[in-house]
Every structure is written in structure tokens, then in C-alpha cells.
Amino acid sequence: MNGFLNLDKPQGTSSAHLVNFVKRLTGCSCGHLGTLDPFATGVLPIAIGNATRLFEYFLTKQKTYLARFRFGATTDTLDPEGELETGGEIPTRSALEAALGAFRGEIEQTPPAYSAKSVDGVRSYVLARRGENVRLVAKKVTIYDFSLIKQTAADEYEFSVTCGAGTYIRALARDLAAATGTLGYCTALRRTASGYFTEEASIRPELLTKENWKNFLIPTDMVLPFSVIDCSDARLYNGISIPTAAPDGLYKLYREGAFYGLARAVGGRLKAEKKLC
To answer: In Å, what is the CA distance from 214 to each residue of 1, 79, 135, 139, 222?
Structure first.
């Protein structure tokens, strides 16, 4: 079986735990498309079978989040599970909105110390838990939208964030607070969309059983945003490139109406790139 399950991750469980849950449920190899921290909830796509070969094709997909940031305090993990430190003023709505503009577009972002980034072969969060001073290199991320929705408490606001892969919402809380002269951290986080996958079409893990999970399986070709080529030329399926009039690019490849995988057109030649059926 190949395809995706679009899970609605509950709070308090890890993404890896849900991958293992789906693996036991289906008896297939599995992997997730983008980690959600244990305190976060929402869309967690799980690839099953040959769909796990597609991770590289989802690196540029957009993700959308609802996030709540508390100001005038922070934690060492930048989320509710860390050690609390208070200090700083509570920014006004107008001050926050004025600062948001600097966080839209392509920006430099330093990942949180408590993250899965590798430092000399060791995960950053492992070093941080040891009390070691972790220095991570800033990297470029893309923020397509960053908007203040409402004030949810005297010291807390809710935001909508649409961003590219690799963005840390916890780091946005830290940096937005710093831009307004105070401390801040992320108190709640929900992913509402991840590329093709949306919260409206997601399913809670506890509703899945060995008897019904196939009813929720999303076919691999449905989630791929590429044009279609249907070709019956046997040479293509034996590793040989064939002439094509298709423009250069990546295509969903079908063989007499049945999905086969991906093919790439370059310079008037078409070659099968990845078998996914």
C-alpha cells in the first residue's frame, strides 16, 4: 500500500510516536512530512510505503500555523514545556503590528537551542539539556504571511503564520518579542495546512483501526502538484529516455491510465525518475 494519512496530531505526543503507531497499524514503512513538537497540534502527513520516497519533493511546500505568543516572559525551550523566566513589558497591538513587517519575506532566523539541528554530529537539544552553550548558525527562511489575529490574554496574542520549510515558529516568538524590546515564547501552536494537506481533511489518530485505515488513505498522485504525462512506451519503464514535446520539468507519469511515478523532461527527452506505484 502506498499513499498518505493526514493525521490531526493531538497535544502531548511526539511526531515519531505517531509514525510508529501508523507503522504498526499498516505493517508498512512510514515517515512524516515535517515534525511537530509535542506541545503542538494539527496537520501531520504520514507517508506510507513508496510515498516515503517523496520527501525531497515536499521541501518547498508552504505550511500555515495558528500560534499564541506570550510576552514579558520566556522559557529556555521557547515553548510551554521549558523553564520559565519573566521580564520585560507587554507590547501593544500597534507595536507588534509595526514590527511584523520585518518578519515577512526572506529573513535570517537562528534556530532554537532546543531543536533537532546537528552540532558536530550531536543534536542541539541534547547539548542544551546538558547545560552546554549551544551556538547555531542563522539560516534563511521564507515567511509568506505573518499577521496578528487577536489578543487572547493580558500578555498573549494569537498570530497566523504561513511559511516555507525549515521555519521555527518558536523562534519567531523570540525574535518578535526582541524587536519590541521584551521577552516572548510560544504558548500554543496548531498547524492548519501543510502543502496539499489541511486540517479540514485530517483525521484524529484514535479513530484509525486496522480495519478502516485504508478508507482514509490518500493516493500518492493526488498530493503531487505536477502536470500529467501518460505514456505506454516500454523503453521509458526500462530506464531509457524517449523523445518528448513536453516542456522541461517534473511530471506525474501514468502508464495506460495507471499511476507509475515521476518523470522528468529535459531538452526534449523524457526519463522516468522515481517509481511510486
So the answer is: 9, 35, 45, 39, 15
